[in-house]
Write a structure and sequence with these properties.
single chain, two-stranded antiparallel sheet, 45 helices, 10 strands, globular
């Protein structure tokens, strides 16, 4: 037998054996599982057969879910500091034993590892395995006497694998992990750069305190502290600037010493008796000002906020910069640095917030959202058709029903605290009437429909409200149930069927909420796990002492499961999370920072950003059948209703239009009124013939009009007008309340106002004469810009006339001059010259309508919660203000103690006050304090008690949860609008390119040999070295080592670290210079400079050399910044050597975003300019005194002048403590106030709310839209060819830029991560 025949027989035998095995597998009870495990257990073997039946059956999963829930209950019953009871310990052991048995059963059924579909091949089984192993180690350590209960905290994570919807969401997150890791690398890269810079600049600066000088009398009997301490010194100390520094707070700025309520002003008498120094002889101001002896500024042992906030080393610098990036408490850190170092330090913090918060953090959000769109398939709900006929009786009946509901809602909305008794009586009668009407309606429906009445959810809802209202009237309760009547507002939503576009926004919101169900479950599980972990780490630790020695338990704590979950939810909203961090690091260890970073990064920047993806997905489904069918059906019904209404109202009306009938009847009356009609016709005919005449005086051939036309169309005319607009804006920016009325500056500003008003009046007259007023193709009023200019000119003239005629200096019409700031928008007419700015402006203008609809939905949402808030809290937000209020229980006790019974500024006493309070909560600034006020509210004229009614958490937490959805609706609108505008701009660019023959010509690229063919062997070898990966990897390693060495620097560092950093810097600079010289030799100077990355190399080398020169020549004191900060610039070179494809895509995204953000920043500049000048006009006279203390306004945040107003508005734009700033402006005038503005309390909410909506909700989200489109463009363009040398890669990019238009847009957001997801 030959070898071939033997081979054929073996193949036939193997084939027969494989077929037999496949047939046997098909006959197995579980064909997807291994037939034999552990070498002997087959699927029919009894132990394994039983395990397979248990593991594959549904009851195992049901029991597992039940055990997980019971485990959660057990974990929630844990009390920090007390330990678990014996019963809970036994139960925990039972739960652990159950999951061990479950794991064993599954291992026996599926096999451990190495089999098909074995236990450890499933990633969810791996999670259960690791959790069981961790708990086993925990029990082992407990036997050894080591408390390791943290292992049980992660037990609830088993629930993820048992709930399919949560498992799908987590699966998507796992797919996003590689991209998230890259974003995290860039995020840490940016934080590290700024942290190193902070250490270089401000190490030890925040320790500066004012110590006692040498001139204090030796026989001093006063007990003075070593340095000046404020009332809250541990949290907010008095940070001073040393001699020679340009800080803003010196020791001479310490407030005078106070004694017996008076301010001391005397110097210490060195020869007088010490016993009489502190005793006032005549008045309170004649005592000794002991604070004047604190005149030496030097470093102390403490940093602000119990030592947490500082730049003394890289670790604390990371913590501080991370807090700045989260935009919570960053302004306070900036103010400390401005006091200690320089006022110009605000530039550093603005750069950190822009790069870190507005760009890098939003890049993370965009990556998660787009990956979610690409990987998660969402199903849209199909609505029931339910068409109905809209006849006149049905329309009238609906209108009457809506009117009745609207009136019933109004009767609830007008209720307020301290309302007149007559009004209370009238509202009570109205309540009875409307309750009776709704009861009759319900009775008639029950009689007509019987049990079918309860098939409609709206009817069930109405039934519950009516029953509650009737019970309230019959039982004469105290009104607690009246809050449920506010739910009638939800019935009013049916009016939105007549607003199709608004209904579409509501459908998007509804779809988003429905699709976010699994995400909400995952967030709840995440919050629970973090809460239990926080209880084990920080439970019972947040106990401190106040300056009087009293023990204070912080409200933001982890002592119970309820407050631990509330605190974790607060951290997710990033409201006052830094205060929780300060307490945790003070009570435990600085490593507690890792817990908060984990909660914020995973919860806020990962899980909550999935909601952004769901919202964007919902907006992209605008062409779905749901929106199309609903909109068309609503339009049809509305048209049918209007048609039937008009036909039934006047059945005798002819089908012809009124104009036709009037023309038909006109000849019959012509002879009777012939004479007057002839005169009118002649006048109309003359006017029609002279429509092209300006003012019916200047004909189109008039020389003066032709001259005016030539003048206004001349380029110099536009430039001159823009120059005067700029000068006008400069004079408006110079306005401030502190200018004396008789000063030269005030005279110059007044004269400039007259001159500019005259110039703009002349401009308007020239344009009106040249173009005509109303009539004509290009008349003056046909342009909206001209209409705005004309109105501004008229208002300016009116203001000048009134100001000259009015004798008083302060008149309300003075605010009209601020309207001149609208002229700053006129340069937007030339936006066609800047396509990126045009794209941003188009997106902003196009988004007005959808943003208006979102605002309307938010107002309806606010209105509903406002009525609830008024019913729950009206008259309860008062408290006693005094020194000792522990024994005060009500208003009478407060007044008897000569204390003040004051109302909290944000309250729910009336509908307007409730709306303002809810808007503050909606912006996520100050909502925690409002929640505490609501929990402490006891009753009317009752002193608040801590956590009096914890059920009010439902009101505040549900509001904040809904606010997440509504805030992300703004992002969805801006992303959709930006994408549409970019697509439109792309079409316009393509049309222009198609009409331009020069662009359509094919480019002839001559074939040339490589430039390095004629190199000498030595230069060729240098070229090979410079184009290899070795030099990039080597320089990246060198720079990384350099950065790590720079990170070793810290406050009070030893000499060897200083010498190490100094000499290493010299060595690294030499290596950078050698690299640049080698590349110049390899590529030539021209080819070297053609690459933009090489520009970065040259800049880094120059900066390094300059810093060495400044430090070597001891010129550090001659320049405004520390020269060592220039060393940090070398870190930027790492961006060049990050050759990972995904990292380069993100870097391109950031670079493109920066170019687009420049245009958006120009919009910010226009917007900020207007509001800053308006803020100076409104709030420039506000001062912080003892009678009017401030919580947000102070030396660095006020509206005293234009520059400070810009800085304050930027703080408001970031959302940091803006509610306290608005609270300070809601100041009521007192009889002793001189310059108080009476209308300020009404104008201030409109000023800040409109600014917050435009800045935080619109313009900032425009940045998110720009990032999303930049990421899409980076993916659609050809990826970088890393195999090419640097110069050839740059040439390739230049050729692509020449071939394609500069502002290409993406075609769809759906494919925005094609490159990223395919890798």
């Amino acid at each position: 037998m030959t070898d071939g025949q033997m081979r054929e027989r073996r193949e036939v035998a193997l084939t027969i054996q494989e077929n037999r095995v496949s047939t046997e597998e098909e006959q197995l009870p579980y064909p997807n599982l291994a037939s034999v495990v552990f070498r002997s257990l087959t699927q029919t073997t009894r132990p394994r057969n039983w395990c397979l039946q248990i593991a594959c059956g549904p009851w195992m999963e049901y029991m597992s879910i039940l055990m997980i829930l019971l485990n959660c209950v057990s974990l929630g019953m844990y009390k920090p500091g007390e330990g678990k009871s014996y019963k809970l310990e036994v139960f925990d052991v039972f739960v652990f034993a159950f999951f061990l048995v479950e794991m064993t059963v599954k291992m026996v059924a599926f096999g451990v590892y190495g089999y098909r579909n074995s236990y450890l091949q499933n990633k969810w089984n791996k999670l259960d395995f690791f959790i069981n192993i961790a708990e086993a180690f925990g029990y082992f350590f407990n036997i050894l006497g080591i408390d390791f209960l943290l292992s049980q905290v992660f037990g609830p994570l088993r629930l993820i694998s048992r709930v399919p919807s949560m498992r799908d969401v987590v699966t998507v997150l796992i797919d996003v992990v590689p991209m998230l890791a890259i974003v995290l690398v860039i995020f840490l890269f940016v934080i590290h750069i700024f942290a190193v810079a902070g250490v270089q600049l401000w190490a030890g600066q925040l320790r500066n305190r004012c110590f006692l000088g040498d001139d204090i009398p030796t026989n001093n009997s006063m007990s003075l502290s070593p340095y000046f301490e404020t009332q809250f010194d541990e949290k907010v100390p008095f940070v001073c600037t040393r001699e020679g520094k340009s800080g803003t707070q010196h020791c001479r700025d310490i407030p005078p010493y106070q004694e017996n309520g008076g301010t001391c002003s005397l110097a210490a008498p060195h020869k007088a008796s010490a016993a009489n120094w502190g005793i006032p002889t005549v008045a309170s101001h004649t005592c000794v000002n002991w604070h004047s002896f604190y005149n030496v500024c030097r470093a102390s042992e403490k940093n602000p906020h119990r030592g947490v906030i500082n730049f003394d080393n890289i670790f604390y610098a990371w913590i501080t910069i991370f807090q700045v990036v989260t935009l919570e408490g960053w302004a306070e850190i900036m103010f400390f640095i401005m006091d200690a170092h320089s006022f110009l330090s605000f530039l550093f913090f603005m750069l950190v917030t822009v790069m870190g918060s507005f760009i890098i953090v939003n890049v993370c959000a965009v990556v998660i959202a787009t990956q979610f769109l690409d990987n998660m398939k969402l199903k849209s709900e199909e609505p029931s058709p339910g068409a109905a006929r809209n006849t006149l009786p049905l329309l009238c009946r609906r209108f009457a029903c809506w009117l009745r509901r609207f009136n019933s809602i109004i009767t609830i909305a007008v209720e307020h605290h301290n309302q007149p008794p007559k009004m209370t009586h009238v509202l009570h009668i109205c309540n009875i009437v409307f309750t009776f009407v709704f009861f009759v309606e319900m009775t008639l429906k029950l009689i007509a429909l019987r049990f079918k009445y309860f098939f409609d959810l709206n009817n069930i809802f109405d039934f519950a409200i009516v029953i509650v209202s009737v019970w309230e009237l019959i039982a004469e309760t105290d009104g607690r149930l009246s809050v449920l009547r506010a739910f009638r507002l939800l019935r009013f939503v049916r009016l939105l069927h007549f607003l199709p576009y608004l209904l579409r926004q509501l459908l998007v919101l509804k779809r988003t909420i429905a699709e976010a169900g699994p995400l909400c479950m995952l967030l709840l599980l995440f919050t629970f796990v973090c809460s239990v972990l926080g209880m084990h780490l920080f439970g019972g630790q947040f106990i401190f002492k106040d300056p009087q020695g009293d023990i204070i338990i912080e409200r933001k704590n982890f002592d119970t499961l309820l407050w631990s979950m509330v605190t974790v939810f607060q951290i997710l909203t990033q409201e006052d999370w830094n205060l929780v961090l300060y307490n945790a690091m003070t009570a435990t260890t600085p490593w507690a920072f890792l817990y908060f970073v984990t909660v914020i990064m995973l919860g806020k920047h990962v899980l909550l950003n999935i909601l952004v993806g769901i919202v964007v997905q919902s907006f992209q489904e605008k062409e779905s059948s749901e929106c199309t069918q609903d909109s068309s059906r609503i339009d049809e019904d509305f048209n049918d209703s209007v048609t039937s209404f008009t036909s039934e109202t006047d059945p005798s009306r002819p089908s012809q239009s009124p104009l036709t009938s009037e023309k038909d009847t006109e000849p019959a009356n012509t002879q009777e009124d012939n004479k007057p009609l002839t005169c009118i016709q002649q006048m109309l005919h003359w006017c029609k013939e002279h429509e092209e005449w300006a003012f019916y005086v200047f004909s189109p051939q008039n020389r003066f009009r032709i001259y005016c036309q030539r003048l206004i169309y001349h380029k110099l005319f536009d430039n001159t007008v823009l120059l005067f607009i700029l000068l006008s804006c400069v004079t408006i920016a110079m306005e401030r309340p502190g200018i004396h009325s008789d000063s030269t500056e005030r005279w110059i500003l007044n004269m400039s106002r007259y001159v500019f008003s005259g110039v703009f009046l002349v401009e308007m007259l020239f344009k009106v004469v040249a173009l005509g007023v109303f009539f004509g193709k290009d008349s003056y009023c046909s342009s909206s810009w001209n209409v705005m200019d004309g109105l501004l000119v008229i208002l300016s003239v009116i203001h000048i006339i009134i100001s000259l005629a009015s004798s008083g200096e302060n008149n309300m019409l003075g605010i009209l001059k601020v309207l001149r700031l609208l002229r700053t928008l006129r340069p937007l007419r030339v936006i066609k010259r800047a396509p990126k700015l045009k794209l941003a402006v188009d997106a902003l203008i196009t988004s007005i309508k959808p943003i208006g609809n979102i605002v309307f939905i938010c107002c309806t949402f606010f209105f509903f919660y406002s009525i609830l808030g008024v019913q729950l809290f009206k008259g309860k937000f008062f408290h006693c203000l005094g020194q000792y209020t522990k024994n005060i229980t009500n208003k009478s006790d407060c007044l008897l103690a000569n204390y003040l019974w004051v109302q909290k500024r944000y309250n729910f006493d009336s509908l307007p006050q409730a709306l303002m309070s809810l808007f503050v909560m909606y912006s996520k600034d100050g909502w925690v304090n409002l929640m505490y006020d609501g929990l402490d509210a006891v009753g009317i004229d009752q002193q608040p008690m801590r956590n009096h009614n914890q059920w009010m958490l439902v009101f505040f937490i549900t509001f904040m949860v809904m606010s997440f959805f509504l805030l992300d609706m703004f992002i969805g609108v801006m992303v959709e609008t930006f994408a549409q505008c970019q697509q439109q701009q792309k079409k316009e660019n393509e049309e222009e390119a198609s009409h331009d023959p020069s662009r359509n010509k094919p480019k002839k690229i001559p074939t040339q040999p490589p430039y390095y063919t004629c190199y000498s062997p030595m230069r060729r070898s240098i070229h090979t070295l410079c184009t290899s990966d070795f030099i990039d990897v080597f320089m990246a390693t060198i720079i990384l080592i350099s950065v790590l060495i720079m990170a070793f620097q810290h406050y009070k560092q030893p000499l060897y670290i200083e010498l190490l950093t100094e000499y290493s810097y010299y060595a690294f600079t030499v290596l950078l210079i050698i690299e640049v010289l080698l590349k110049i030799l390899a590529f030539g100077i021209r080819r070297f400079l053609r690459n933009s990355w090489n520009h970065l190399d040259v800049a880094v080398v120059l900066v390094s050399v300059v810093s060495i020169v400044f430090i070597g020549m001891e010129m550090a004191d001659w320049i405004p910044i520390n020269p060592s900060i220039l060393r940090v610039c070398r870190v930027l070179r790492l961006a060049k050597v990050l050759k990972h494809k995904k990292i380069r895509v993100l870097l391109k995204t950031i670079i493109k975003t920066l170019s687009q953000v420049g245009s958006i920043c120009l919009l910010f500049a226009f917007f900020f300019f207007i509001y800053a000048a308006l803020g100076v006009e409104l709030f420039g006279n506000l001062d912080c005194t003892e009678e009017n203390p401030c919580l947000g306004l102070h030396r660095h945040a006020n509206f005293k002048h234009f520059g400070m107003a810009l800085l304050t508005l930027y703080q408001v734009c970031t959302g940091d403590n803006w509610s306290a700033i608005m609270k300070d402006t809601l100041r009521e005038c007192r009889p002793t106030d001189i310059d108080c503005v009476t209308y300020l309390s009404h104008v201030s909410p409109m000023f800040f709310s409109s600014f917050v909506v435009m800045a935080q909700f619109v313009l900032v989200n425009l940045v998110v839209a720009a990032i999303m489109q930049a990421l899409e463009d980076s993916n659609e363009s050809n990826p970088t060819n890393f195999c090419l040398p640097l110069e050839e890669e740059e040439d390739e990019e230049e050729e692509e830029e020449e071939e394609e238009p500069s502002d290409n847009a993406g075609t769809s957001l759906q494919g925005s991560v094609g490159v990223l997801s395919n890798e």
